[in-house]
Amino acid sequence: MEEWLSRFGIASKTVRSALSAAEEAEKQYRERLAEINREVLEEARREKRLAILLAGRPYHTDPLIQHRVAEMATAMGVYVITDDIVYDEKLSIDDTIYLSQWAYPNRILKAAKWAGLQPADVQYMQLTSFWLRSRRFSDKRSAGYA
After folding, report:
1. What number of other Cβ atoms are within 10 A of residue 20's Cβ?
2. The whole model's pTM is what?
């Protein structure tokens, strides 16, 4: 990256400084998200209410994609936390039969494992927005399916 940016007259020192600042800002942001989620979970437990760990890709926070699942749950008195709660947890997923290749599935698996280790007041729900079934529009058996 430094080499590429140097073509635009940006010094290596500036690039390293900017990357370092960005990494620190991201770390602080993630730590704050985890802290907020822990606070919500503590409140749910004080109130003796159910908490749902709602896991999904970042774009699932878009109300048009996630169909307001979090709002529906909270309207029923359920507390909602996100998989960000496990950001700084030292929880290994090495004991799973799983080929760990990408950050997103690793995070989701870690969150699911964390939820499974919690008392029954925490339940896990994962949002997904993909339908991978083969779509053959000429196939009459597919009629009526979106």
Report:
1. 10
2. 0.74
